[in-house]
């Protein structure tokens, strides 16, 4: 059920309790978690925090903790699955859900107890949910349980006119209901960032500060950067954040003498949308960014040439471009944004700049919100535990939280290096995939397959990485096509298969077509139907419904079914 | 030279001074005691002769050498035992009142007895402080917060808190708990303090 | 085993000190002025039953100190090699480059102890010890207060035990200062004994 006053109905309720927090392992969830942690710290709320990776994890963690905790908070997970069904909580267990995944499961939304959803206030999101009357309906019949009513199959055999009429009406209603539910559940997409929702909660209680705002910014940026939300949604969230920022900054100005240089300062900026450029060299950054890399087609010789032309056009010497950004000439560095923007148009680079935030602490280099997202993302997908000094096996989750905790955290720096490694892997693989024509058109969608034993296999087994890679690949593929083909392909989604960490199975990921601005993804549903139709042995255990695993033998028939369904 | 065996014991302590408690060298101690027995008996003999015939200065030197060696051996043995006890006492404050079995296995029966007595003495003393006692092993550094954030390093099962509620200590889960509840566990390496 | 009570304080102050016991086992070249009955086996170079007058033997310091006592005068002792004129000259030239540990792990302490044996050169040895220490101390201080993380083991190997102790102390305070700077000094940590114990256990498992 929806909570209308989260301060009263959520925070005040749990403030006296011991709380279990379960967090999905994505950047937004972690940011939300950081905000919640500091809120808990303010009020000495004792909590336990566990990371959950998929639905199975959620159930296991729930089961092992349900004896001790009666109040659970789910961050960025659980909203789109029927929690009452899969968790089977005892009557005294309260579950609070803050999840950016959509669509929200209707049972979660309409149930009267135990599951509480916290959504963004005054927003159209709740309006998207079908009316109660369209889905649930109480018939006069007494012996029918209202919960399972719509599945009721046994009917009393009466043949009088009235009953027939009723039956007809009911059938119509049921058909309509089916349609509504189908429409509602057809696409999976993302709503407001969980971090932002929690930040607003903090703000309502006047407990927000600049660090919490920074986390909210990172949460929103991660959604945009990982292509979970479209530009429009991003900008509306950013504007909101900017409002909060100027309010907080204004408050700081009033007592200007007391602010130390070591406190965190956030600025709203119109920044270049290229990866990690403040921590890399300009050249590398241009090569490895989704936007510039694909526009120039850096995997071809010609593309490289064009990139060099671009740099020449800007008038920045190559030696400077290839050295670390921090050591570039100050003058060039200061003018970089204008230089890039001026030449960008000529080379067909669109959206090279975007609205973003930077943070600074002390005299350290500026840190862009997107840098942090790259860093934390790569920590989360870190596959090799290359930590020589600590013999303890650290978990990526803990490392990522540590990276978020301070902007001067050494873990963040480590993450930046990891991110570079991953971006290089993406670029190299994209290049070779395009070169040998690995992306095939299957009619209703594009298809590609990562072979077992390919060099970056361990990375590809990470769902987060695989999704990022697919977006890169789709963009690059589009650029590699001729004009006419490109227009058609813009409307095609991409399905990518990769060896799963589970022996003998394949991970299948679907991403929406480029033309889909709102990033709605229809694969969740399509995968379900395809597997039902072919009785393939599939597992839909990820929170993201557009990622599943299929047993290897069933893969081809599954893909065939997918083609039929979607054409 | 006399005292070599005893010196070996000392070297052993010296080698492991940074590490944890080494195994109690029962054999080494016995050998030193045997050497002392021999020295003592030889001296007794010589002294008895000296008393009869006090003109013989040469055996006096031998007595002096043996006597010095006896003293030296005694010093080494005492230092060996004393330094081990120092370490055992430190164990009480770091591991708590129950020692891991392999650490216990390195102690002699007398040492275990001493540890138990020390434990009891400490517990009695702590109980006698203030109203209802005071845990001296707590808050060795002045606490800054009532609650702290900790990460669980190993699966440790359920932990029962003072208020009767239980929490599950599972590897890599994070907890926000009263500091007093987890200080021991941090010192024992079950939890890690996250800042 | 404090710095306040360095090895060399002798039996009275440091009766239970491991360092002092180790130090006092260093060998001192001695010559017997009297013969010793039946203890000939202490001198491995002969098979005689007794130690004869004039026989030379390396006695451990604890025994030498007792036998050379002015009241007894059973033996006369020589200065050990690292304190003789040649080495004093080397130390005078540049004490910083000498591997003191190799000369004697307890160089200063042993030197001090030998002073009480009334050598003619006693005063020279004392002066040389002070000079060498003050000369080297500056460097140790500098190194321990500034070097972080680097591998200094080759340098540390040249320090005598007291110097090593000083160095470690400096390093420790530097580390705790740095921990304080980043606000980490408040962090509760696994006790060192425990973590060492665990590490060893883990190694044993691997």
From TrEMBL, chain A:
One GO cellular component term noted in the UniProt record for this chain: nucleus
Chief localisation class: nucleus
Protein name per UniProt: Cdc45
Region (Disordered): 140-161
Lineage: Eukaryota, Metazoa, Chordata, Tunicata, Ascidiacea
Gene name tied to this protein: Ci-cdc45
UniProt-annotated location(s): Nucleus
One Pfam family here: CDC45
Example GO biological process: DNA replication initiation
From TrEMBL, chain B:
Occurrences of domain DNA replication complex GINS protein PSF1 C-terminal (ranges): 147-194
Entry similarity comment: Belongs to the GINS1/PSF1 family.
CDD domains given in the database record: GINS_A_psf1, GINS_B_Psf1
Assembly notes: Component of the GINS complex.
Chief subcellular location: nucleus
Annotated compartments: Chromosome; Nucleus
Name the record gives this protein: DNA replication complex GINS protein PSF1
Name of the encoding gene: LOC100182896
InterPro entries cross-referenced by the UniProt entry: GINS_A, GINS_bundle-like_dom_sf, GINS_Psf1, PSF1_C
Sequence intervals crossing the membrane: none
Organism encoding this protein: Ciona intestinalis
BP-aspect Gene Ontology terms: DNA strand elongation involved in mitotic DNA replication
GO cellular component entries: GINS complex
Pfam families found in the cross-reference section: PSF1_C, Sld5
Function: Required for correct functioning of the GINS complex, a complex that plays an essential role in the initiation of DNA replication, and progression of DNA replication forks. GINS complex is a core component of CDC45-MCM-GINS (CMG) helicase, the molecular machine that unwinds template DNA during replication, and around which the replisome is built.
All residue ranges annotated as the GINS subunit domain in the record: 61-129
Keywords: Chromosome, DNA replication, Nucleus
TrEMBL record, chain C:
GO cellular component, one term: GINS complex
Organism of derivation: Ciona intestinalis
CDD domains in the cross-refs: GINS_A_psf3, GINS_B_Psf3
Function, as annotated: Required for correct functioning of the GINS complex, a complex that plays an essential role in the initiation of DNA replication, and progression of DNA replication forks. GINS complex is a core component of CDC45-MCM-GINS (CMG) helicase, the molecular machine that unwinds template DNA during replication, and around which the replisome is built.
Record GO biological process: DNA replication
Primary residence: nucleus
Residues in GINS subunit domain copies: 87-180
TM segment ranges: none
Family matches, as InterPro entries: GINS_A (IPR021151), GINS_bundle-like_dom_sf (IPR036224), GINS_Psf3 (IPR010492), GINS_Psf3_sf (IPR038437), PSF3_N (IPR055221)
Record has Flavoprotein as a keyword: no
PANTHER family: DNA REPLICATION COMPLEX GINS PROTEIN PSF3
Binding partners and assembly: Component of the GINS complex.
Family classification: Belongs to the GINS3/PSF3 family.
Coiled coil residues, start to end: none
SUPFAM superfamilies to which the protein is assigned, alphabetical: GINS helical bundle-like, PriA/YqbF domain
Protein name in UniProt: DNA replication complex GINS protein PSF3
């Amino acid at each position: 059920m929806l909570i209308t006053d989260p301060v009263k109905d959520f925070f005040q309720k749990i403030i006296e309790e011991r709380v279990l927090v379960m967090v999905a392992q994505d950047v937004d969830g972690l940011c939300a978690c950081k905000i919640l942690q500091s809120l808990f710290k303010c009020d000495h709320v004792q909590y336990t925090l566990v990371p959950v990776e998929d639905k199975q994890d959620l159930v296991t963690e729930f089961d092992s903790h349900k004896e001790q905790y009666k109040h659970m908070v789910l961050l960025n997970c659980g909203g789109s699955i029927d929690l009452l069904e899969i968790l089977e909580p005892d009557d005294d267990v309260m579950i609070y859900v803050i999840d950016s995944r959509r669509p929200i499961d209707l049972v979660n939304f309409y149930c009267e107890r135990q599951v509480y959803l916290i959504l963004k206030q005054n927003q159209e999101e709740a309006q998207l949910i079908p009316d109660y009357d369209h889905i649930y309906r109480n018939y006069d019949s007494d012996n029918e349980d209202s919960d399972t009513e719509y599945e009721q199959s046994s009917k009393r055999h009466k043949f009088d006119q009235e009953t027939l009429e009723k039956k007809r009406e009911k059938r119509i209603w049921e058909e309509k209901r089916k349609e509504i539910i189908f429409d509602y559940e057809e696409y999976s997409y993302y709503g407001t960032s969980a971090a932002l929702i929690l930040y607003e909660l903090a703000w309502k209680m006047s407990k927000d500060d600049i660090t919490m705002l920074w986390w909210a910014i990172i949460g929103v940026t991660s959604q945009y950067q990982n292509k979970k939300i479209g530009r429009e949604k991003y900008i509306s969230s950013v504007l909101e954040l900017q409002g909060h920022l100027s309010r907080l900054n204004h408050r700081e100005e009033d007592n200007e003498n007391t602010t130390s240089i070591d406190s965190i300062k956030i600025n709203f900026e119109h920044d270049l949308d290229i990866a990690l450029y403040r921590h890399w060299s300009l050249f590398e950054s241009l090569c490895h960014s989704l936007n510039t890399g694909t526009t120039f087609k850096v995997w071809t010789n010609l593309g490289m040439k064009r990139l060099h032309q671009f740099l020449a056009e800007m008038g920045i010497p190559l030696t400077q471009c290839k050295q670390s950004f921090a050591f570039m000439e100050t003058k060039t560095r200061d003018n970089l944004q204008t230089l890039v923007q001026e030449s960008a148009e000529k080379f067909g680079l669109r959206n090279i700049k975007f609205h973003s935030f930077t943070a600074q602490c002390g005299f350290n280099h500026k840190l862009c919100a997107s840098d942090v997202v790259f860093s934390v993302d790569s920590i989360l997908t870190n596959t090799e535990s290359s930590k020589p000094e600590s013999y303890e096996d650290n978990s990526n989750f803990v490392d990522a939280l540590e990276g978020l905790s301070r902007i001067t955290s050494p873990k963040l720096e480590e993450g930046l290096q990891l991110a570079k490694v991953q971006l290089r892997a993406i670029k190299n693989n994209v290049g070779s995939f395009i070169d040998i024509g690995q992306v095939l058109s299957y009619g209703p969608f594009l298809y590609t397959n990562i072979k077992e034993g390919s060099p970056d296999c361990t990375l590809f087994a990470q769902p987060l990485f695989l999704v990022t890679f697919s977006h890169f690949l789709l963009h690059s593929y589009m650029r590699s096509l001729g004009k006419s083909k490109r227009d058609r392909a813009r409307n095609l989604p991409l399905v990518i298969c990769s060896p799963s960490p589970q022996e003998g199975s394949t991970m299948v990921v679907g991403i929406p077509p480029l033309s889909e601005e709102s990033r709605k993804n229809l694969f969740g549903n399509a995968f379900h139907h395809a597997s039902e139709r072919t009785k393939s042995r599939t597992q839909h255990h990820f929170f993201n419904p557009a990622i599943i695993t299929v047993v290897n033998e069933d893969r081809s028939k599954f893909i065939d079914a997918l083609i039929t369904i979607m054409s | 030279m006399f005292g070599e065996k005893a010196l070996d014991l000392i070297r052993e302590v010296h080698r492991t001074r940074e590490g944890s408690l080494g195994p109690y060298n029962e054999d080494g101690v016995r050998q030193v005691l045997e050497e002392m027995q021999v020295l003592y008996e030889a001296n007794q003999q010589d002294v008895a002769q000296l008393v009869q015939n006090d003109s013989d200065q040469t055996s006096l030197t031998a007595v002096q050498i043996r006597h010095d060696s006896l003293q030296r051996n005694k010093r080494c043995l005492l230092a060996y035992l004393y330094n081990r006890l120092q370490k055992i006492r430190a164990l009480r404050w770091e591991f708590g009142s129950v020692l891991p079995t392999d650490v216990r296995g390195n102690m002699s029966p007398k040492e275990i007895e001493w540890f138990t007595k020390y434990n009891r003495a400490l517990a009695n003393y702590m109980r006698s402080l203030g109203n209802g006692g005071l845990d001296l092993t707590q808050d060795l550094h002045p606490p800054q917060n009532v609650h702290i954030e900790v990460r669980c390093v190993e699966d440790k099962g359920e932990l029962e808190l003072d208020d009767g509620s239980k929490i599950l200590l599972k590897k890599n889960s994070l907890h926000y708990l009263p500091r007093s509840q987890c200080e021991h566990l941090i010192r024992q390496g079950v939890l890690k303090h996250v800042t | 085993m404090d710095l306040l009570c360095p090895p060399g304080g002798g039996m009275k102050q440091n009766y239970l000190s491991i360092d002092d016991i180790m130090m006092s086992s260093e060998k001192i070249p001695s010559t017997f002025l009297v013969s010793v009955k039946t203890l000939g086996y202490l001198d491995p170079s002969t098979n005689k039953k007794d130690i004869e007058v004039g026989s030379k033997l390396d006695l451990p310091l604890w025994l030498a100190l007792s036998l050379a006592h002015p009241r007894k005068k059973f033996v006369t002792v020589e200065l050990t090699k690292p304190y003789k004129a040649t080495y004093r000259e080397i130390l005078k030239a540049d004490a910083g480059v000498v591997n003191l540990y190799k000369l004697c792990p307890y160089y200063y302490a042993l030197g001090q102890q030998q002073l009480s044996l009334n050598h003619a050169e006693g005063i020279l040895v004392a002066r040389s010890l002070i000079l060498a220490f003050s000369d080297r101390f500056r460097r140790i201080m500098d190194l321990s207060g500034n070097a972080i993380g680097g591998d200094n083991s080759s340098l540390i190997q040249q320090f005598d035990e007291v110097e090593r102790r000083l160095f470690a102390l400096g390093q420790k305070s530097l580390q705790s200062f740095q921990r304080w700077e980043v606000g980490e000094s408040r962090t509760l940590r696994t006790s060192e004994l425990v973590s060492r114990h665990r590490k060893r256990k883990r190694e044993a498992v691997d």
